[in-house]
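Researcher: Let's try something more involved. This one mixes different molecule types, so please make sure each is placed in the same coordinate frame as the others.
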Amino acid sequence: MLLLASLATVATLLSPVGTPSDTTLGANQSVACGAEPTAAPSVANALRAAVAVHGGAVRWDLRRGAIRLWVQRRPAIAADVSVLGSDWRRAIAVAADAWSDVVPGLAFVIESDSSHADVIVTWERDLQSAAADGDFAFLTAGRTALVPGADGRALAAHVRLAIFAPDGARYSVDDVRAVARHELGHALGLAHHAAPTSVMAPLVRAERLSDDDRATLRALYALPVGARCSLPAQTLGG
Ligand SMILES: [Zn+2]
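Model: All components are placed in one shared frame. Result:
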């Protein structure tokens, strides 16, 4: 399996207003969120990238309960696809389960009404034409937009998954599950991890979360919402 999932498309973090709550730092406050950047793939660099890409730590408030996930039923554009829509929807649920309980209290629940969902997953025939992705655009299999509130709390996320690869071949259920696992990592606030063993590698090969994936998510959710790193952010490649 050789798939490329795009960098998250990220909304700009708005300036915080009002009085921060007990778990929220204003965006002008900073906390140490890792060691000095190094060239080697590491949890510290992955955490730094996650904070840098959003301009601050963006994550869900897990005290609100499970993150409500809505998955589009097979759209008309997939009418000629010889896979049951339910298989793909199940693949998304399995991908979400991979992240559940990595952080205490983190859970996804399938929501039947999109208007009540926190994270929505929709299908597109392909995702090959996004110029913003540069050289790798033609390989993009998924894309995620994560919308932060003014205080850095995640408000919503939209995951778009391609049905067909750029060469016209249909992605398999295994492919869809792997890309969804990666994109849901973005929906949780993660950026890319440079190690090929990470499900957050730009080129998705891993079939299960690595120790670094779990550690990076735990580290992100240990930061105050909206926190910035006190060290210069490492630029993400790929
Ligand atoms: Zn990605």
